[in-house]
Known about the structure:
Mean pLDDT: 91
Structural class: alpha+beta
Strand order of the largest sheet: 4-3-2-1-5-6
Low-confidence stretches: none
Strand content: 25-35%
Distance between the termini: 24 Å
Amino acid sequence: xxxxxxxxxxxxxxxxxxxxxxxxxxxxxxxxxxxxxxxxxxxxxxxxxxxxxxxxxxxxxxxxxxxxxxxxxxxxxxxxxxxxxxxxxxxxxxxxxxxxxxxxxxx
Length: 107
């Protein structure tokens, strides 16, 4: 799995509003991180049980904060099964991570 530091560097380098869906081992619930120009949002995914977006000024603040469903990325990062970027790229698979990186313009 990609480390938080690697994810953070990638996240900071991406233009636009990419979406990252996070799946944890042992959970049927997934979560979404969305990058915006001036903030980051975090929410539970799901048609009937999805949560509203919780906004944070930065990815680091989200990482350190207990959020929806008592999820704290800092204490749970090692429990992440996979991160799906833009509904297409599994960042736990090295080839797909490279494809994702190639699909964006980086600074």
